[in-house]
Amino acid sequence: MTGGRDSHGGPGGPAHPGPLLRARHLTKRFTTRAGGALGRKSVFTAVDSVDFEVFPHETLALVGESGSGKSTTARLVAKLMKPTDGTLEFAGRDVTHARGPDLARFRNEVQVVFQDPFSSLNPRHTVARILTAPLVYQGLPVPGGRRAFAGELMERVGLDPDHMHRYPAQFSGGQAQRIGIARALAVGPKLVICDEAISALDVSVQAQVMDLLVRLQRESGFSYLFIAHDLAVVRRISHRVAVMKQGVIVESGPSAEIFERPRDPYTGALLAAIPRIDPEWDRRRREGAGPGNASTTPSYEELR
């Protein structure tokens, strides 16, 4: 990440061990041909040699406009896409070229919650089957049996266990996203990647899902890589922020610092685009004085 290692956990945050995830010079280029297979070849760099780290128990938000490369970065981290260059380390292991058992282990440790829950949930499967599938497909035992396991997961995300035999289409968008979150939790991950996980939800539902994400992190202690374009959302949930523009991280640091004293003009422009209902907040930021309590995100001490 640009600028070296940041402080973590906000004021008074305790010292922490090394990063859970470390990306170094992560790069993704796509080759395209205009006019079909015989057309002129061109190369597009979606992610351009980015460095960043995610530490245990924290939320790193990766933000930027559409096309900035943040979702491609998320897919590279989740190993849903191969990097053109660079390395990935997870829990002290080089997983850049992980295969076989090493890749299976990584898949359990890193889970993804996607933007559209309905496109990522099998419409022909009941919720109970969806929630137990990650274990069943790997030949792992389902603690307490499928029904009890699915019911416990549904309770954790605020859903009625009696509805486990329903299908995804029988739920609202917010409820379906809770199912997606529950499925991610099924294998006990260390890192959950939220790729625009709340951007398709109504504003009131967004707040409920964000509260859920914070609570689950308190309970289980995993980390988030939170991909978003909405800085208002990021401010509420993140400990640190990395700002992407055209495939490059242009600024990174503790959440409060990014919001109160942005260094890069692009970050300032993103902040200026946030709708405000409190003009005093804007005045204080322009004058260089923080609004007091800059973030409602729990500190690392609270997460422990």
Automatic annotation (TrEMBL):
Keywords, A to Z, come to: ATP-binding, Nucleotide-binding, Transport
Ranges where the record places region Disordered: 1-20, 282-304
Please name the InterPro entries in this protein's record.
Answer: AAA+_ATPase, ABC_transp_ATP-bind, ABC_transporter-like_ATP-bd, ABC_transporter-like_CS, Oligopep_ABC_C, P-loop_NTPase
Residues covered by the ABC transporter domain: 21-271
Name the record gives this protein: ABC transporter domain-containing protein
Q: Name one Pfam family in it.
A: ABC_tran
Question: What family name appears in the similarity comment?
Answer: Belongs to the ABC transporter superfamily.
Q: Where is the composition biased (Polar residues)?
A: 293-304
SUPFAM superfamilies with a match to the protein in the record:
P-loop containing nucleoside triphosphate hydrolases (SSF52540)
